[in-house]
Design a protein that fits this description.
- The complex is a heterodimer of chains A (463) and B (96).
- Chain A is mostly helical.
- Chain A has a two-stranded antiparallel ribbon.
- The longest helix of chain A is centred in the first third of the chain and has 44 residues.
- With 96 residues, chain B is of the alpha+beta class.
- Chain B is built from 3 helices and 6 strands.
- The radius of gyration of chain B is 13 Å and the shape is globular.
- Helix content of chain B is 27%, strand content 34%.
- In chain B, strand 3 and strand 4 form a beta hairpin.
- A 6-stranded antiparallel beta sheet of chain B has the order 1-6-2-3-4-5.
- Strand 1 of chain A pairs antiparallel with strand 5 of chain B, so a sheet runs across the interface.
Chain lengths: 463, 96
Amino acid sequence: MSSSTSLQSLIREARNITGSKQNEIRDSIVNTIYQEAGNIAAETVTNEKNKVDWDRKIDQIITSRIWGFPIMFGVLTLILWLTITGANYPSALLANGLFWIEDQLTNIFISMNAPSWLHGFMILGVYRSLAWVVSVMLPPMAIFFPLFTLLEDLGYLPRIAFNLDRFFKSAGAHGKQALTMSMGFGCNAAGIIACRIIESPRERLIAALTNNFVPCNGRFPTLIALATIFMGGMVVSFSSAVATLSVAGLVVLGIAITLAVSFLLSKTLLKGIPSSFTLELPPYRKPQVGQVIVRSVLDRTIFVLSRAMIIAAPAGGIVWVLANTMIGDTSVLATIAGWLDPFAKQMGLDGFILMAFICGLPANEIVFPILIMSYVSGGAMIELDSMEALRQLLVDQHGWTWLTALCTMLFTLCHWPCGTTLYTMQREQQSWYWTVLAAVIPTAVGIILCIVVNHLVRGLGLV
Amino acid sequence: MKLTILNNIKLNERGITMAGLKSLKELAVGSSAIVKNVSADGIKQRRLLDLGLVPGTRVEAVGRSPLGDPIAYSIRGAVIALRKEESTTIMVETVN
């Protein structure tokens, strides 16, 4: 007889003896433990009397009926505004420097009499997309991540969950989903891992399936760039403010979609009632600024950036090859884009944009660089060292309107998650079914949203 | 149980409070109470006990979230937010 069966029979016997008293016994055990702990604490711990309880005073404002939501929106807007305005200048500086290096590398290739395909693949493909990823992503990340880590360190995030819990409960979801969404701002794969903090499997799945509706760091640069060029461009004098508000508005839309999809899921595929919810609101802490910067730069910025670079390098090379391999007199890239074009037009996009999204499956960071590369490759080479140059490329050469930008931003918010996120989903849930759904749900929402917005705006004659 | 009822009557006589027992959800923000009994089911019950919500514990309602639910309570030096589904299962007696 093995020891485990004898243990089980012992447990069974104990259950028979205790019978219906089991709960009472457990209660009295917990009770005694707490009494004992309370006694020890009373003997040893002294509380400072008459101290002003700042935590409570702050909470009274931050979670108040009047100020709770405006403060949350204000904090979001402030972070985005600092990121957008702060990233502009270093971004241009980085781009200038990196494209200057590109010129020097080109000179070396020429002086070595290297074949033009090698130069094209290595410099115009691999190097250029790397330069794009670094100059577009690094500055916003280097500002956004420390600011966000600062908020975490302060203890503000649990208050967000506290404020929003009522919405999540109505959607049949868990209040801690607000925390996993906050993680999703950094990285959706991290957000899905963070769903482990939700005990109920049903609510954990809802949180994981909808995490993608929070734009991750890989998608923020695209949103920020498009908002700066198009939304900001409409009102020149307040351009960064308008750009900030449109990105913040998009984030709020993402939260609304999260709640709507969570609600639908808990009414259909994941039926059930909300499980128990207890959330600690920890004391506020003075953030350790030095540590915040080190941690956010090393753990997050460098990690995300290097992941993007590892994927962008080969992808850039492949895109260059596709753009320069000719079938008849059009490139493979243009041919594929042509196939996608009719459908993409319905969504307010064009074939190249949709293709860039598809090529961006390995990492969302490279969607915009790929789009730019497929626009410029083969055509006139322009130095894309400023937002103005980017505007000219999109508007003057490829006929973008604000509607194109809006639909691209909407599809950036709602489409399949990146490869890493899907891989993480599969690993966390151990199920292909949920992994496929994690891709299908946001894609379906994105396609419907884009088609509706496109036809609505055109139907009303606004473009 | 008898003792609680007796207590209630005594309190009523002294005119300090009406029926002494009410659910934690009804505790006004800013006032304190002593936990008398927790009657949630299964895992919920254990979670609440684990938070230290055992009979005899002093609890203070600290604040409501903007939409009224959940409510934050100060329990043994920690601030814990509970939804009304949980707080209605906890019976408390108000203290002055």
